[in-house]
Write a structure and sequence with these properties.
The complex is a heterodimer of chains A (153) and B (291).
Chain A: E1 2-9, E2 12-19, H1 24-31, E3 50-53, E4 56-59, E5 72-74, H2 87-94, H3 104-117, H4 123-129, H5 141-151
Helix pairs in contact in A: 2-5
Chain B: E1 8-10, H1 15-25, E2 29-32, H2 38-43, E3 52-55, E4 64-67, E5 70-74, H3 79-83, H4 87-90, H5 95-101, H6 106-111, H7 114-119, H8 127-133, E6 137-142, E7 145-150, H9 151-154, E8 155-157, E9 160-161, E10 168-175, E11 180-189, E12 196-206, E13 212-220, E14 228-229, H10 231-237, H11 244-252, H12 268-288
Parallel strand pairs in B: 1-3, 2-3
Antiparallel strand pairs in B: 4-5, 5-10, 6-7, 6-10, 8-9, 11-12, 12-13, 13-14
Classes of the chains: A alpha+beta (153), B alpha+beta (291).
Chain lengths: 153, 291
């Protein structure tokens, strides 16, 4: 049985009918068309579904959409603008930190909180910070370099 | 997530509403805290009968207080909030908790709560092993009736806790020890975002002459249905001067108390071998924090 809920995503409020067991991830992708947030393992192990909930990085596959009511959701589409992308997105482009791209949006959302909490992390802190995000292409080196670049290290 | 029998998703503002939902669905009402182990429960077939989810995040119970008496942790405190406590870095007796909080990735720390982590009664979790080494007590409540219990008494089997339907953990409490005390925790994991193959925590305190006056050794990660306390290891340490050789003897004794399981993460023999290695490392780390 569906329920009507109100969700605030990237500053816009949406009224959506969802099943009670729908995850935030499925609502973002399947109801709102925000497909930057990726479905990977769908079980809280790979990190490519990472979004911000009240400014904190969370696995959206692990949160029920009903639990996300009243909270501010930010997805990769909510960073920067068409004219001026976020400095982290810019750094990922400049450093070539993207291969297949599937992990990238989650990786950037995680790095966003990492740099918010610690604006100039050393390499250990960066590697520890992105430990909840898997990348099967790059070997992480260029991702770490991109985060360093965004931090101005 | 597939909850084929789900009929209701309650988000109560007040504890009485929890009672109303639980009265309707009984054992088939599942309390939802941070939600970070829902997939783990689903994968193990533990959600198939759930008819109601009760999301308790609006009830409060969050916050951490450190005083001369010790540490009180509200059950809905997230790992990320707990990690901010400055005393974790300066009080050696809290070392095991500090260590255990370094392992989860950011996304889990932001979601997982201390109370939810304990109530899940998952044998592979880290925080319960650390808190049991610190002799954690719990305040629990149902319909306004409060009671206290030892953390060890919360565990009633694999993914089973001893709480009555609708009974909630309100607070976890750690009493500050008298004298010189320190603790440590260490985990063996296959990847940076996996459940423990084995984890171990050690708490030791010394008397005025430098002999061990109290010891608690706990293990998790598939060495029993829940966290296991190794009284055999503790007996080796009590009343003795703590040398590296003695710590090794204590670590070797954990085999008498644990029942390692075999699964896709590790064989029982490997878990047993690593339980000894990691207990020794936890004991050495705790001892080093006293020097």
């Amino acid at each position: 049985m569906k329920q009507l809920i109100s969700l605030e995503v990237n500053g816009d409020t949406h009224e959506i009918a969802v099943e009670a067991d729908a995850t935030l991830l499925s609502v973002l992708r399947d109801n709102l068309g925000l497909i930057g947030t990726k479905r990977g393992c769908d079980s809280g192990g790979c990190g490519c579904c990472t979004v911000h909930v009240d400014g904190k990085a969370m696995y959206s596959c692990m949160m029920y959409a009903l639990s996300a009511q009243g909270r501010k959701i930010t997805t990769i589409e909510g960073l920067g603008s068409e004219e001026k992308i976020d400095p982290l997105q810019d750094a990922f482009v400049k450093e070539g930190a993207v291969q297949c791209g599937y992990c990238t949006c989650g990786m950037i959302m995680t790095a966003k909180q990492l740099l918010h909490d610690n604006p100039h992390p050393d390499e250990d802190a960066i590697r520890h910070g992105i430990a909840g995000n898997l990348c099967r292409c790059t070997g992480y080196h260029k991702i770490v370099e991109a985060i360093k670049t965004a931090a101005g290290n | 997530m597939a909850l084929v029998k789900l009929k209701e998703f309650c988000i109560p503002d007040k504890p009485e509403q929890v009672d109303a939902c639980v009265a309707k669905y009984g054992d088939n009402a599942l309390i939802l805290a941070g939600g970070s182990f829902i997939h783990g429960l689903e994968a193990r077939g533990l959600l198939s009968e759930v008819e109601a989810l009760v999301d308790i995040r609006k009830l409060g119970f969050a916050g951490v207080t450190f005083s001369s008496e010790g540490l009180r942790i509200g059950a809905m405190t997230t790992f990320a909030q707990l990690e901010q406590l400055p005393e974790l870095g300066s009080a050696p007796w809290l070392g095991a908790l500090k260590d255990a909080l370094t392992y989860p990735p950011m996304q889990i720390k932001n979601a997982a709560t201390v109370g939810g982590c304990l109530a899940a009664a998952c044998p592979f979790f880290d925080i319960p092993t650390a808190l049991m080494a610190l002799d954690c007590r719990l305040s629990v409540s149902k319909a306004g009736a409060k009671r206290e219990m030892n953390l060890a008494d919360l565990f009633a089997g694999l993914f089973e806790n001893s709480l009555a339907p609708g009974e909630l953990i309100m607070e976890a409490k750690l009493a500050k020890p008298a004298g010189r005390a320190a603790s440590a925790f260490i985990k063996l994991e296959g990847t940076a975002n996996d459940l423990a193959i084995v984890n171990a925590a050690a708490y030791i305190s010394l008397d005025g002459s430098g002999k061990c006056q109290a010891a608690r050794v706990t293990l998790g990660g598939g060495v029993g249905d829940n966290v296991v306390r190794s009284s055999s290891a503790e007996q080796v340490l009590l009343g003795q001067k703590l040398t590296e050789e003695l710590l090794q003897r204590a670590a070797d004794a954990v085999g008498q108390d644990i029942q390692p399981m075999a699964d896709h993460r590790a064989s029982a023999a490997y878990r047993l071998a690593m339980a000894k290695v990691f207990t020794k490392r936890a004991l050495s780390q705790a001892l080093s924090r006293l020097n």
